[in-house]
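Page header: ASSEMBLY MODEL / two components / 229 residues total.
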Amino acid sequence: NAGVTQTPKFQVLKTGQSMTLQCAQDMNHEYMSWYRQDPGMGLRLIHYSVGAGITDQGEVPNGYNVSRSTTEDFPLRLLSAAPSQTSVYFCASSRKGTGQSSPLHFGNGTRLTVT
Amino acid sequence: AQKVTQAQTEISVVEKEDVTLDCVYETRDTTYYLFWYKQPPSGELVFLIRRNSFDEQNEISGRYSWNFQKSTSSFNFTITASQVVDSAVYFCALAMDSNYQLIWGAGTKLIIKP
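Prediction written out in full:
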């Protein structure tokens, strides 16, 4: 099993450019989420989805869009990149439980730099 | 309000010492779940353990042990006879039945020196 696959691993963007971070899981997990990790700030939830066709905002959703057309895929779109979006991004998935009671499986992360 | 506090930003010990990482949480929910995750220098995040609020039994897994105490709202993690491979950032997290957002602590960076 590949688990959670994120691409790309590294990306450099110029301010104003757009891009999509890809995330795919092969564990048939209903729940998927995107986090960003910044030094000294731990993990912050951007968006999450509890199933295909359902998405919701997390703690820091501004500047990001998501969609969930299939159970497997949960792409994160940056519409107009800003230097404040320089961060490491993690995609995670889990079985659907009551609330977020199931352990998360994480991808290996995408290191994004916006200049 | 829900909150997770990991007061120890960084801990440095010499190999073979025991070390305890503290985690204090706040929630008004009666049903909740506590997690520990490990992030080694390579960057991936790895699940270590989950505890639900109705199970206060301590857990031991090899050199790792976890002490859950509802009376002090703490879920501490102890590594016995630490090894260099234990060097990582360790995160404590809290989940409730009432929503889908994990509450994360800021993490504790553990450095094990040879």
